[in-house]
Structure formats: structure tokens, C-alpha cells
Amino acid sequence: MRYLPHTREDIESMLKVSGLSSLDDLFNCIPDDLKTKQKMDIPQALSEWELDTHMEELASLNAANKNCKYFIGAGSYDHYIPAIIPYLISRSEFMTAYTPYQPEVSQGTLQGIYEFQTMVTQLLGMDVATASHYDCGTALAEACLIALRKHRTSNKIAVSSLIHPHHRQIMQTYLGPAGYEIVEIPYTDKGVTDIKALEKMDDIAGIAVQSPNFFGNVEDLASFKTVAADKKILFITSFTEALAYGLLKNPGSFGADLVAGEGQSLGIAKSFGGPGLGLLAGSKKQMRNLPGRFVGKTLDSNSDKGYVLTLATREQHIRREKASSNICSNNGLNAMTAAIYLATTGKIGIREIAQQNHDKAFYLKTGLEKAGFKPAFNSPFFNEFVVKVPDSFKAKKESLINDKNIFAGIDLESFYPELKNHYLFCATETISKLDIDQLVKEVQ
């Protein structure tokens, strides 16, 4: 998109209409002591071609190219994106579509959301799914708010300490100022949430558990559902790797009341950390408590198929005091991307991709163990796992980045101080056997 600046004549014309004498008069409402007095340190203007060269030089400083090998997951995963997706999603019908404020006029947008919601419910085994949310963290915060509002007599919610640390921070941001308390459930020496500690917790409104958890380990969701049923509270599950359900049983099969997750793996590029795709689904009982939109399919007066905005509980559609949320804007383009990805790969394709993820991660873990790395936990995992590394690995890791373009795991100490020298490794279908063999050889 070209930048078209206003001419001096344009500016003077607008000032005349507004009754102002200069652009500075636009800021008279700001107190002088809050204004910056010194001039802004802005470089001299560049020509279009000089600017292109400058931007290319800046881009070359980023290690974001096909020559790099990433053994990192932790909530943002490197997956192959079928060529059909960037082609279709760049079409103007999808790229420029916006929130359907006059929904029935926007049949294409509504059908896209309807197909997205349908496939999300199939993937997660739930009854209903909302239109998309910002990311997993905000979707999970919404799910916890539902549990707290529903229980009413308790302002506490039990949250696994193995939910992604960033998502727990987001939950604290939303729940804390509202007077709600997050009680963290510790983890065991097997790298899974301590269900015995949960059983001893009283006066909680709900349980939130991530599976696969931040360590990549698979949680026993059936046991958590049993505890939730005994305490008569909502059971919430979350995930950061949507493709895991190509192999694992989905949350719906364990009786989850609400499911929040990250859909970045469904055809969406990592893009330096965002934007992502928040998924939020629930049982039919929770339909009117869920924020956002639900699109339905019906027949019009001529018996022709049509799509309608069946339910919308966000503050832009109903009276603000009755809205269930004001943070549930639809990530429409990313939701469409995920829908195209799911339709393109299909059930068999997703299962095959998931199998490759698991098998390559297992092969990587086996190789690292032979190289002297010690497995931290002995639990089933999907495509990432934790190992304890030798003291010399930290320096080796930097040399791998600088000399080999290999990004070998992330240090967990900043997230879990007790896990010094423990690293989280990941392997997806984009990592070849040769890549794994090279990494193992380099760290021996």
C-alpha cells in the first residue's frame, strides 16, 4: 500500500474548515508539561529505492529463512503450509472481509465462519465452537471467566502450573483486576499436573489443565474430569498444538465443558510470534455463556440455503452490560486460513502429520539421550519434551545459532527456576532425519 501524504494546500484547507490556525492547535488539549520539548530524532528522508534497500538490509539481520533449523516449539510451531493456502487467503474476498455488522448481507463471511466452527467442533469433539478469538491466552481467560460467573460462590479457579506461562500471565491480567484468584496446581516428577494436590483444593469454581502441557507431556484428562464432576465445577482444557489431536483423543471424549486452544499450527505462519488464532469451544450447555458469535445454516422463504448470525453475545451486538465479553473479536482471516488448512489436509492428512511430529520428536529424544542428555520426565509426549543438558551446552547452543543456523531448544529456567539446565526441545514434520542427526552429532 502506497503512502499518500497530504499537500500543504490539503492541510490548510482542513485547518480552515476546522477553525484552527496550525497543526499544533490540534494538541492544545494536552497540558504543556506532558508535551515533548526537544525535536524528534528522525533521520533524513530516503527515496523509495533507498528505503527499499534499507528495509532489505534490516530484514537480512533476522534469522528467518529456510536455511535455519528450529528445534523450538513452546506454543509456536513450525509446520509446512500447503501452497493453496497463501494463494486462496490472499484473494480480496477473504483478505478484505470484515466483521459482518449487517450479517445476512455477508453470506460469504458467514459461510466461512460456519465451516470454520464446524471443523473446530469435529477436531475437538465439542458441541459448539465460537468464531475465533485473539489467541489461546485470551480464549482461556474467557473460559475461566465463564466458570467463575457460573459458580458465583467462589472467586477462585484452579489452574495447572503446566499451562503455558504466557497464557497464565494473560489469565492473571484479566482475572486479577476483577477480584478473582488463580490457584496454581503443582506438577509431579513425571512432568504432569498433580491431581492429588487438586483433590485437596476446596472452594474453587473450575479446573483448567493443558494437554499436551507446556513440557509436551500428555495429561490424564479423564481423571481431572472425575475430580471436576465430584466437586460439581466446570472442567476446562487448553492446548497450544492443535495437530496433537490428529493422534490423541480429543477433549470432548473426556467430557470437557470448555476447550480453549491455539490454532497457529493450522496453516498460519509463525510471523515472529503473531497474530495467532484463539479457539474456544464448549458443550451445548455452555452455548449461551460462550462469548463471541455463532453462525447457523438455515433456509430462506424460497427454500434456498443461507447463513445467519444465530447468536452474538459481544458488546458490539447487544447492550454492553449484558455482553459476555468485549475481548472476543473474530480473527477472521486467520480463522479462514485454518478452515482452508483443515479442509485441505482432511482427517487422514492431519493424522499423518501428527504421526510424523510424534515420531520425529521421539527420534530426536532418543538421539539426544545417546549424546548424554538426560530425560527429565518419563511420560508420554507429543512433539516436544524436556531434557537436562550438560553445563557446557549453553555455550554450544550459541555457537549452533551463529555457525550452523540451528536453534536447539529453549532454556526453561526463566519459566521454572527449579529446572536449571533443563531445555524444551521440539520436532515437527519440517525437521528431517538428517537435521536431527546433524544436531545430535554437533552436541556430542
Task: Give your account of this protein's structure.
With about 450 residues, the protein is α/β, with parallel strands linked by helices. It folds into two domains: about 70-80 and about 345-444, Aspartate Aminotransferase, domain 1; about 85-340, Aspartate Aminotransferase, domain 2 (3-Layer(aba) Sandwich). Helices cover about 35% and strands about 15% of the residues. It is built from twelve helices and 15 strands. Strands 2-8-7-6-5-3-4 form a seven-stranded mixed β-sheet, with helices on both faces. The protein is globular, with a radius of gyration of 25 Å. The two termini are about 50 Å apart. The mean pLDDT is about 90.
Summed up, the domain count is: 2
- The top level CATH class name of the largest domain: Alpha Beta
How is the biggest beta sheet arranged? 7 strands, mixed
Low-confidence stretches: none
How do the strands and helices of this protein lay out in sequence?
Layout: H1 8-18, H2 48-60, E1 69-70, H3 84-89, H4 92-95, H5 107-124, E2 128-129, H6 136-151, E3 156-160, H7 165-175, E4 181-185, H8 195-199, E5 206-210, H9 221-231, E6 234-239, E7 258-262, E8 278-282, E9 293-299, E10 305-312, H10 332-370, E11 374-375, E12 384-388, H11 393-404, E13 406-407, E14 410-411, E15 422-426, H12 433-443
Parallel strand pairs: 1-13, 3-4, 3-5, 5-6, 6-7
Antiparallel strand pairs: 2-8, 7-8, 9-10, 11-12, 12-15, 14-15
Helix pairs in contact: 5-10, 6-7, 10-12
